[in-house]
Description:
Blueprint: H1 6-13, H2 21-30, E1 33-38, H3 44-54, E2 68-73, H4 76-89, E3 98-101, E4 106-107, E5 114-118, H5 119-128, E6 135-140, H6 148-176, E7 191-196, H7 202-205, E8 217-220, E9 227-231, H8 240-254, E10 259-263, H9 267-301, H10 309-316, H11 320-326, H12 348-351, H13 360-372, H14 376-386, H15 402-415, E11 421-426, H16 432-436, E12 447-452, H17 455-458, E13 465-470, E14 473-480, E15 485-492, H18 495-503, E16 511-515, H19 519-524, H20 540-548, H21 565-577, H22 589-595, H23 601-616, H24 623-638, H25 642-656, H26 660-684, H27 690-703, H28 707-714, H29 718-738, H30 755-767, H31 776-789, E17 794-799, E18 802-805, E19 812-814, E20 827-829, E21 832-835, E22 839-842, E23 845-846, H32 849-855
Parallel strand pairs: 1-7, 1-8, 2-5, 2-6, 3-5, 6-7, 9-16, 10-12, 10-13, 11-12, 13-16, 15-21, 19-22
Antiparallel strand pairs: 3-4, 14-15, 17-18, 17-20, 18-19, 20-23, 21-22
Helix pairs in contact: 3-4, 5-6, 8-9, 9-15, 20-21, 20-22, 22-23, 23-24, 23-31, 24-27, 24-29, 24-30, 25-26
The structure holds adenosine-5'-diphosphate and magnesium ion.
The site of adenosine-5'-diphosphate (ADP) has 17 residues, from helix 3 and helix 4.
GO cellular component, one term: nucleolus
GO biological process, one term: maturation of SSU-rRNA from tricistronic rRNA transcript (SSU-rRNA, 5.8S rRNA, LSU-rRNA)
EC number: 3.6.4.13
Amino acid sequence: HVSRPAEVEETRKDLPIVMMEQEIMEAINRHPAVIISGQTGCGKTTQVPQFLYEAGFGSKQFSSRSGIIGITQPRRVAVLATAKRVAFELGVRLGKEVGFQVRYDKKIGENSSIKFMTDGILLREIQNDFLLRRYSVIILDEAHERSLNTDILIGMLTRVIKIRQEYYEEQQKSLQSGGTVTSECQITPLKLILMSATLRVEDFVSGKRLFPNIPPLIEVPTRQYPVTIHFSRKTEIVDYIGQAYKKVMSIHKKLPQGGILVFVTGQREVDHLCEKLRKSSKELVVQAAKRDAYLKKKCDDGSFGGVDMKEIAEAFDDGSDNQNYRFSSHGEDPSEIGDGNYDDDFEEEDMYESDEDRDWETVDDGFASSFVEEGKFDALRAAFNGLADKNGSVSAEPTKTIAAENQEAEQVKNTFSPGKLRVLPLYAMLSPAAQLRVFEEFEKEERLVVVATNVAETSLTIPGIKYVVDTGRVKVKNYDSKTGMESYEVDWISQASASQRAGRAGRTGPGHCYRLYSSAVFSNIFEESSPPEITKVPVDGVVLLMKSMNIPKVENFPFPTPPELSAIREAERCLKALEALDSNGRLTPLGKAMSHYPMSPRHSRMLLTVIQMLKETRNYSRANLVLGYAVAAVAALSLPNPLIMEFEGEKKNESKDADKTVKQEDKQRRKDRKEKIKAARDRFSNPSSDALTVAYALHSFEVSENGMGFCEANGLHLKTMDEMSKLKDQLLRLVFSCCKPSETDDGFSWTHGTIQDVEKSWRITTSSSSKYPLLQNEEELLGEAICAGWADRVARKTRATEYQACAVQEPVFLHRWSSLINTAPELLVYSELLLTNRPYMHGATRVKPEWLVKHAKSLCVFSSPLKDPKPCYSSE
Length: 876
Ligand code: ADP
Ligand code: MG
């Protein structure tokens, strides 16, 4: 029995999916797999688990449905927010009936019936129990996003439901013929539900690759209000953030109440735009109050008749502030300022431009001119705006009586002055509490502006959004499988994404979407939909996972969209280099051990090499410390460099800001910051390895009393350091849980000490923090392990900081923030090749030729001969 809070009952009534509960449950009862599609916000994520729960799934009372209800999300943000919401709707505490689990966080009880998790978590669970016996239903949410993990899960789960059905039938047969089955061995069929925000489901249902019987597709009609799309006439290529800023401000000043959702590409853009908007909001409020008071006074005085333009000008021309306000430094058309809210009886239709391909400005002009004809007060306002005109001449014929003017003045007082902006950021790396702020209540006078990355496209429905500002961009990671070169690029979104984004505006009423690109760009340049992740990323982890699950021929696995054969071959080559596969492509014991670690095979190879080598050493006394350090180094190599992040973040702001004073302040701040980072780099620097440098910084960070202060003082990126610290703890737990020494000791379990021993030695050495904790031979051990993990990413110096990397034609470079920059060793391995203005090696570690001989075997063949032949490492 479920008793929901009254307010929930009220809002649920309005969700279209609630009307379809019966139809959905019937389909689920009749079929092993069901696809549900419905626009974002229709209630899929929050309601379907509740339907199942109410139907007895996840309840001990029904033996056939006693397994729990699992729901996966591609994004951590969505897991937390929706679990919390569902618990609230069911009137229970989070962690009781409804729980969740993400990589760093978990709140789930023994008796939980509903479990929200990331797709990565379920993928790990399926590795340990392929039949997922704990579950009676699995919901794969946001299947349309085609995340790598969800795609793999879809393929696997189609097999799982088949096998569970077969087992179940066998059991029933044996029961009928008098056999017995203990309750632990009892198996029930599994239900699979795919949920999608789009109707593009053909990859899931075509060709019987996944499902022998095509599952029913249930479409949830959405009460989607019309959203008027406004294309920009021109497409600003570089400063789309500036455009977004302008658009938000002009919406705020002119258009009626309603939240604004802005789509940008990354955290830096979000923060930058938020800051700018907050600043403008403050200025606007001050100015509006001033003007209000002035106009009110004028009205009260009755001194309307002979308005002295100069007087008005002086009244507002009080220095830089005002300058900012009237002629915004961002080149805003001054005539835009302070319009809309004067007009009480505008016609909604006229206010917005509905003709797709017109420039907004045209409409704005028309809109502004409609004011001038009415009355003196408007004339005054027009005059005021007219101040900004170059010629400064506005004819304001006084036509109304003083009484009427006063009345209008009253109205103006009540309707004018665009309120404060409530500016909130939203991106994946934001702390959970900050993420949930978009759902909080706020004051009526405020206008909500959410500046978001792609997370707001489908995963979260933010209430009260009426306007969407779409930059049309998204940040994508491009990967060149041949060279291993990665680059983050800001790219155009797909047409499908664009319509998803626009849809966010029509949830609570008719809305408007302002696209900061032209319709020509939209139809000629945008792809129809974005390609599934699996076709874009290296699949070494996928292949290792498959091999460890006894799926020998990865190319035969039923992926919704299979990866390129060449990508599979490349992954196999890499896994052979890491000795996870033998020359016949079979999983080695090392590979098996690696597959237990939920991380890139390179990282697990490095960790396991450290463990192996430490077991071989005689000196056990410091082994726990070295292991702790190894784990920190893996954490360091898994995340962006916190030194570089901080620096680049500052640099980015520079080019964008046209404001002079801000620029100067910024300049000074940046300079200070740069100095700080330089000093920090020197302090933590390990000239033989970037990974060890960052590991040492992490070390110092963890024992510092005030993490935030420590990062501030040392120019480290706080969020990255926090994440790294958590990752390190988690990896350490993995080392001890993944390789239990008990059963089959495969040589990879840690027997020198306990997890507490490792943590203790880590803490002891840091407390005497001025001394560098590692000895030279220990550093070399870690260097060799890193070499083993990146054995195919070797580079040899050609001159200065220029290197030649195996299998890469063009020269590659040490990054100026690398700790190897001053020593520039002859040979090194790098963890990433990132193409910015030129290819930079990140995560570099000096290596010795003998390590290469040992670990890189015949892999390291340089693509072109050196100009100046040097004694060259040969693989033989
Ligand atoms: P879908 O999964 O179909 O996109 P959801 O189930 O996420 O839809 O959302 C249904 C409704 O519940 C939406 O109106 C949304 O705004 C609301 N909602 C979802 N999560 C929360 C939350 N954490 N707080 C408040 N409202 C929420
Ligand atoms: Mg959803």
